[in-house]
Design a protein that fits this description.
Elements (H helix, E strand, L loop, with lengths): L1 E2 L2 E4 L17 H6 L3 H12 L7 H10 L6 H8 L3 E8 L2 E9 L9 E3 L1 H8 L17 E5 L14 E5 H12 L5 H8 L4 H11 L5 E2 H8 L8 H10 L3 E7 L7 E8 L7 H18 L1
Antiparallel strand pairs: 1-2, 2-5, 3-4, 6-7, 8-10, 9-10
Helix pairs in contact: 2-4, 7-8, 8-9, 8-10
Amino acid sequence: MSTGNGFWLRLPCPTMSDTPLPEPESERLAALVRGSALRLVYGLLYRRLASPPTESEIAYFLRAASVDTPVSQVLRDLQDYFEINVIMDKGDERYRLTGWAGHRQASELVPISNRLRAQTLAAGRCAMCGRAPTHGVVLEVDLRVPADWGGANDPENLWPLCQDCHEGWQQYLQTYAPYASQISAAASLAEPQRRIGELLKAFAGEWVSSDLIGAVASAREYQEDYQRRIRDLRYLGWVIEKQRRYQEGARVTVYYRLIQSAPWPDNIRAAIVAEEKRRRQVRQRG
């Protein structure tokens, strides 16, 4: 669905209670909240969490910004997005930002600004099947890792899909619904090697498709070569099997499963570099 303020992607995901509030100057807030007055007051409430402002302080803040909108209207409109409680402090009513509005669902709105939408669609073709609008398809902006698995509307997690591939991707992801919490935990980790490793551990020896591995590997930053990250895990002492399946459609599907894991080193990258050096020296001696 398109609006004057951006593109809103609707996905199945849990309540907003576990979703962090947007930063005051973030593109996420700009895409979600309409109106500069609302964003200004949100920024004030966000920065004053430890010392919530009074109505008169908010009014002074708006006048200083040359905004004529009444405080009551701004607060009422903000409460469509966020929960704002009135607290008493030494006889003064203060307005505290406490979270998302209770009626909001994470599936309701995952905001993507016009800039991000244009950036994602710039490739001009579906990221899965390669078809372009010249082939009669309409491209949609989708999340590689869905919101309920920890995916955000960051550029690295967005890709253009035609409607058929979009629907197919959503159906495919739903097959992993029983593992949603484990996938979300893996996708939230900092290093791509750790994301892949913890994902494989969550499946406890079951085969995991390369599509899912690639999506989780790219949850924090896009990984063009997730196979290299699997090689990194082997360098760290992990035993991982690979299997190709030829009866699952037009393309060959690659699956991986964990046979044996190893403890995570304090510095994953340094441990990988050290193992690469050791193997190189062994080859040179041989």
